[in-house]
Amino acid sequence: MSRARIAVIGGGIAGAASCIALAQCGVRPIWVAPAPTPDRDRIGETLSPAANTILANLGLAHLLTRPIHRAANTSFSAWGSDQLHERNAIVHLEGPGCVLDRAGFEHDLFSAALKCCATHIDSTVQRASLNGKNWDVTLTNGAKHSFRYAMDCTGRSSTLAITQGERHRADQLVAAHCFLNQTDTDIEPTPATLIETAKDGWWYAALLPGGRMVISYFSDPDLLPAGISRDFATWSAQVAKTRHIARWIDSAGFCLGDLPMLASAGTTWMTPVTGHNWVAVGDAAAAFDPLSSHGMTTALWMARQASHAICASQKGQTDALASYEAAVKKGVADFLVQRQKIYQQEKRFDGSVFWQRRQKNQI
Ligand SMILES: Cc1cc2nc3c(=O)[nH]c(=O)nc-3n(C[C@H](O)[C@H](O)[C@H](O)COP(=O)(O)OP(=O)(O)OC[C@H]3O[C@@H](n4cnc5c(N)ncnc54)[C@H](O)[C@@H]3O)c2cc1C
User: Fold this and answer.
1) Mean local confidence (pLDDT), 118-144
2) Range 336-352 average pLDDT
3) Is the CB of 150 under 6 A from ligand 1?
4) Ligand 1 atom closest to the CA of 263, numbered from 1
5) Residue 1 has what pLDDT?
6) Which atom of ligand 1 sits closest to the CA of residue 283?
7) CA 208 vs CA 139, 176, 224: distances in Å
8) Which of 124, 156, 219, 220 to mutate to test the pocket of ligand 1 (most atoms within 8 A of CB)?
């Protein structure tokens, strides 16, 4: 059994950014993280403009200059109206966000983090318990470790934090999503993002930098058509009901090929997000409805804030972690207000359970 002072658990954006931010404070953590699979499609590609400054502060601005990503200049939405409204990034003071090659971005971040940790363990935590002053963990590779301090960056599973606190849930939002290939390559599709509402949820489509398209239907588990992820006819019938997405798929020369995968996409958060010798970061602390398009940015922000708070508290600044706890709590509260306002803008589906649940912030 090894003993280490600070361990970062989880290999996503929060975990990698935490290793990098800790190293900036002179701390090289032990990192327990399964290596990413670069060729695996990963949903969630829109990086908000606010991430630019955070990445620059982490010394990672160069990651976005790679030609595998594209600027997020144009988006269209039919939200509260049948008509598509165009929004151009030119109106943002911070400039455009980015449509990422998500797998490529995570791979680059992972490589940068590897240089910052003392040891990388390519495994996952199977069991974790806080015994007195130490975290005792058993990994899926069978190894046992004991850590003095743990940063839980395990995404929505909050593997460590869940043993110390409670997860709250504002909704049960689920995403049925798939990636599309272009079948008519003579067409030059518009590099854009499109959002459209429906009676039982909302749709999202984006042209990805590599020339593929991702589409996603967001609804509640009890409102999804039965068998949507198992029966292609059910899925394609659902897509065909859309007013704009189906037309865009067709006119841009794409074709539905695969069944959708399902992913949890609800707004959930832990309380507390810090303890005597642990902190939760990224989705492990709070995960937001993807409508916000700021899950990745928040993960980067939390990683930096939490790492600096740990280092400050170890130097005797006793309120550093309490400030982080308060900032996360405020972020969740602000988001719940903003989320309700956005859902309230759609008034066309009178009597729809999906919209009622969100317009009243009904849990
Ligand atoms: C459908 C959908 C669309 C989205 N779209 C966007 C978008 O357009 N823009 C945006 O900014 N955000 C988006 N998000 C949110 C965004 O993907 C997340 O906020 C972000 O991935 C959070 O990063 P994370 O590192 O905290 O968690 P994750 O990305 O979930 O990473 C967790 C990591 O921990 C590892 N792990 C899990 N359990 C263990 C364990 N027990 N031991 C060790 N390692 C473990 C996992 O393998 C993974 O590497 C979307 C989310 C969904 C569901």
Assistant:
1) 95
2) 95
3) no
4) 53
5) 42
6) 26
7) 35, 17, 26
8) 124
Atom in ligand 1 nearest the alpha carbon of residue 51: 11
**150 CB-near residues (< 8 Å, 6+ apart):** 6, 7, 8, 9, 128, 135, 137, 160, 277, 278, 279
Percent residues over pLDDT 90 in the chain = 88
Q: How far apart are the first and last CA of the chain?
A: 43
CA angle 51/216/204 to nearest 5° reads: 60
Looking at residue 139, its pLDDT comes to 97
Give the distance (Å) from ligand 1 centre to CA of residue 42.
Answer: 9
Give residue 37's pLDDT: 82
Cα of 12 from ligand 1 centre, angstroms:
6
Task: Give counts: helices (H), strands (E), the chain.
Answer: 8, 22
Q: Which of 154, 204, 278 to mutate to test the pocket of ligand 1 (most atoms within 8 A of CB)?
A: 154
Q: Which atom of ligand 1 is found nearest the CA of 298? A: 19
The model's pLDDT over 1-56, given as tens digits with 9 standing for 90+, comes to 444 589 999 999 999 999 999 999 999 999 999 988 877 788 999 999 999 999 99
Global confidence as pTM:
0.96
- Is the CB of 45 inside a 6 Å radius of any atom of ligand 1? yes
Q: How confident is the model over 269-314, as pLDDT tens digits?
A: 999 999 989 999 999 999 999 998 899 999 999 999 999 999 999 8
Cβ-based neighbours of 337, under 8 Å, separated by 6 or more: none
Average pLDDT, the chain: 94
